[in-house]
Amino acid sequence: MNTQRLLTALALTGGLAFGSFWYWAGEHWSVYATTAAATDRTPLYYRDPDGVPLWSAGPKKNDGGRDYLPVYDDDKAILDPIKPKQQVDTSRKVMYYRNPMGLPDTSPVPKKDSMGMDYVAVYEGDNTDDGSIKLSPGKIQRTGVKSEPAERLPIRVSIKAPGTIQLDERRVSVIAMRAESFVQKVADVTTGTLVKAGQPLMEIYSSAVASAAADYLATITSDTVGRVERYRNGSRQRLTNLAVPEQVISEIDKSHVAPVTVRWSSPRDGIVLERNAIEGMRANPGDVLFRIADISAVWALVDVAERDLGSIEVGQPVSIRARSFSGRTFSGKISVIYPQVNRDTRTARVRIELDNPDFALLPDMYIDADIDTADGAPVLAVPENSVLDTGSRQAVLVDKGEGRFEPRAVKVGRRGGGFIEIRDGLAAGEAVVTSANFLIDAESNLKAALKGFAEATQQPSNGASGYAMGDHK
């Protein structure tokens, strides 16, 4: 204590008399040499007195209350503080010395690099056979290393696929004649008109239908029974085979009048998709006069990538977003997975049934499907950014505590919701690095390289007298 006081007094008196400045650096005294003429010039800037890379345009003090030092244009007024020689811990065994700049160069004895910097001592115990790396608390803080424990939770895997709206094949009806006919009159119905079941569409004259209606009328007005009864049933079936609406046949039963023209009605509720009937036209057997579809329920046909087929199954819920309605979502379920893969796009067609009560979804409308494949069962998972993936190898950095990190190979599974399933290589509760893991991985690779160079220095080369890599400048 008396020695420190004496040195302090000498520093103060010496600084006043000779223009030198002494300061205590924790374990030694350092000196800045100045000249009396320095006070007569204007400094270029001021720098931290402790050698920290901090500068100021004007005078100021650092966190320790010490004044920043002036720097002049000739860089001679202020000299760098005398740096103490690297202190070697004599209580520990030095294995080798590594390059201070991180280059793959080691030496079995102390040395300096080309810039005059001392090689850094590596002690026994700093290297472990498990490949772990140890970082100082300062480096951990500077690099922003963060860790989170592995935990069991359900992973929500969402598969997105584009598609279009299509008609339900079971809800489409076609009106076509089964015998040569003539269109006598067409109702005020056009393409796009919403019609109800039983609504009149047109009136048709057909000689075949008129003849069958007359035969049927003759059988129902006859008083003869037996064979006539069987003939009556055959006449009615003949009208049915000609696709005469049931409503027309019932009117014949009630009125006992055979109509000359037959009124054709809509077989279902729906929208007229096609209208080919024109008044006065001749319709041959098989000609489609009307095509009507019920769009209160539609299909969404989406194309799922081949790699995702193993994650989907019939019955999974699907959310549908139409590009025409950005803020609206339609819900449905997978009903069919078509058993064929498109050889050009490598996708498979998936059918999703949707309710469409307000007819918002129209045929051929573009949609985007979001298939939720979560099964609800919790699995061991870690944050997605904690896995180092090279394509053929996946690994995580396990935080062992006290600044030590262990690279560990893992087997991964499903990904989703920002998490990755870990199927092997990790236990629940083990902490993994989620931030700055690439920096630690680079440090680990560097350490492995340095260890290899260190082992090489202990083996003399063939035909040489103890020469090893790292022993030269």
Automatic annotation (TrEMBL):
GO (cellular component) term, any one: outer membrane-bounded periplasmic space
InterPro entries: Beta-barrel_RND_2 (IPR058792), BSH_CusB (IPR058790), CzcB_C (IPR058649), MFP_Cation_Efflux (IPR051909), RND_pump_MFP (IPR006143)
Domain of life: Bacteria
Keyword Heme attributed: no
GO biological process terms on file: copper ion export; plasma membrane copper ion transport
CzcB-like C-terminal circularly permuted SH3-like domain residues: 380-440
One Pfam family linked to the record: BSH_CusB
Domain CusB-like beta-barrel: from-to ranges: 298-372
GO MF annotations in UniProt: transition metal ion binding; transmembrane transporter activity
Keyword terms, alphabetized: Ion transport, Signal, Transport
Keyword Transport: yes
Family from the record: Belongs to the membrane fusion protein (MFP) (TC 8.A.1) family.
Name of this chain's protein: Efflux transporter periplasmic adaptor subunit
